Amino acid sequence: MANPIAVLPDATLAVIQYLRLRTELMALIASDHIVTKIPTSPTYPYVVVQWGGGNGIWPAIDDAAVQIDSVGGTKVQCGQIARTVRACIWAIANDIVPAGVLSSGADNMAPAYIPDTVPVPPLPRYTARYSVLLHP
Description:
Blueprint: H1 11-21, H2 23-26, E1 34-35, E2 46-57, E3 61-71, H3 75-90, E4 95-97, E5 100-113, E6 125-135
Parallel strand pairs: 1-2
Antiparallel strand pairs: 2-3, 3-6, 4-5, 5-6
């Protein structure tokens, strides 16, 4: 008899759903500005969530690596959003969202100021990486 399988949740979607529920963050940015990709004609600021791999823990826990960028607005505004996102990730404690259950979150790399220098003037951006434990 074959072992049962457990399909892990989409970590990116789960983190986006979680961040959109946090009133502290919604006071700083519109919920539809927490995305996986910035649109072609953006009205800044944005929070961009991307999955960066991680490790599964058998039988059904994902230790997902997630990169979260706070982009645009003023440097001060962008930094406030990045620090608030970080506080939200730290506050994860078995939060249930439609995509799954977020058990905990921790820093892999605290927010770092790395402006996007392609546009003129450069666009403020803070980049951070987190480890998020989640399960179905």
